[in-house]
């Protein structure tokens, strides 16, 4: 058995700086909390939303990126709940920093329970995308990403932004398209809390983009491939 004895990526970071860092790694306490959170989340999804999942066989071993439509705060929770084993332990939701990481309490919940990493929508630098890509490959992570960039306000899926293309550029990382139905009705942006309602998650065959150049045009084509795959799962 081989052990990775390198220093932790977040060594030397403390407090809020560590919570908001893209280099944040999970310690023992965070792993235990994350497992307990996932157990509760799966029970909630079964009991409150009667979650139905099809296509789970399309999930590859890490690393991979999940992309999905985004209409509700239930989306990331649902996708986190369906992952199992190594994929569940290595999963990070890429969450809006200006929504989930603006307070110490919110940052702590997002970091320790959901294991989210912040994406600052109006000021993400190329170096931060490079850090995410490096971790994806070297740490064999799973990212949950919503390429629309924000929750839709009317339940209708918007176009995908090219950030997904920049993230996987120059790699062979598979992108797994998913479509979640029912989340908007259960917890739309206009409601403070969710209500009961059935959720259906469809997981599609992975999309690949290693044949595309690492240019703006290549990133946009990657986003278009992902959007087409997700729309196909929705029947649109």
Secondary-structure topology with pairs:
Elements: H1 15-19, H2 28-49, E1 52-54, E2 64-68, H3 74-82, H4 85-89, E3 91-96, H5 97-100, H6 104-112, E4 117-119, H7 126-138, E5 142-145, H8 163-168, E6 175-181, H9 183-186, E7 200-203, H10 216-234
Parallel strand pairs: 1-7, 2-5, 2-6, 3-4, 3-5
Antiparallel strand pairs: 6-7
Structural account:
It is a single chain. The protein is α/β, with parallel strands linked by helices. The chain has a single domain (16-234), classed as Glycerol-3-phosphate (1)-acyltransferase (3-Layer(aba) Sandwich). It has helices spanning 15-19, 28-49, 74-82, 85-89, 97-100, 104-112, 126-138, 163-168, 183-186, 216-234; strands spanning 52-54, 64-68, 91-96, 117-119, 142-145, 175-181, 200-203. Strands 1-7-6-2-5-3-4 form a seven-stranded mixed beta sheet, sandwiched between helices. Helix 2 (28-49) packs across helix 3 (74-82). The mean pLDDT is 90. GO terms for molecular function: 1-acylglycerol-3-phosphate O-acyltransferase activity. Residues 64-183 form the Phospholipid/glycerol acyltransferase domain. This is 1-acyl-sn-glycerol-3-phosphate acyltransferase. Pfam families: Acyltransferase (PF01553). Keywords: Acyltransferase, Transferase.
């Amino acid at each position: 058995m081989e052990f990775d004895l390198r220093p932790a990526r977040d060594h030397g970071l403390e407090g809020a700086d560590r919570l908001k860092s893209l280099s944040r790694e999970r310690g023992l306490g965070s792993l235990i909390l994350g497992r307990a959170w996932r157990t509760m989340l799966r029970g909630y999804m079964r009991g409150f939303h009667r979650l139905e999942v099809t296509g789970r066989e399309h999930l590859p071993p890490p690393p991979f990126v999940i992309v999905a439509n985004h209409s509700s705060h239930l989306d990331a929770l649902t996708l986190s709940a369906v992952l199992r084993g190594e994929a569940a332990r290595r999963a990070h939701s890429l969450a809006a920093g200006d929504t989930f990481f603006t307070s110490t309490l919110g940052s702590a919940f997002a970091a320790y329970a959901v294991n989210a990493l912040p994406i600052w929508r109006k000021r993400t630098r190329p170096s931060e995308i490079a850090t995410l890509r490096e971790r994806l490959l070297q740490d064999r992570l799973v990212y949950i990403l919503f390429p629309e960039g924000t929750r839709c306000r009317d339940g209708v899926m918007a176009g995908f932004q090219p950030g997904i293309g920049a993230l996987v550029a120059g790699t062979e990382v598979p992108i797994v398209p998913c479509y979640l139905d029912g989340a908007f009705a259960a917890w739309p942006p206009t409601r403070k809390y969710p209500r009961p309602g059935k959720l259906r998650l469809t997981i599609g065959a992975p999309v690949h983009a290693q044949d595309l150049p690492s240019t703006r045009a290549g990133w946009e084509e990657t986003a278009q491939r992902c959007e087409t795959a997700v729309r196909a799962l929705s029947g649109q």
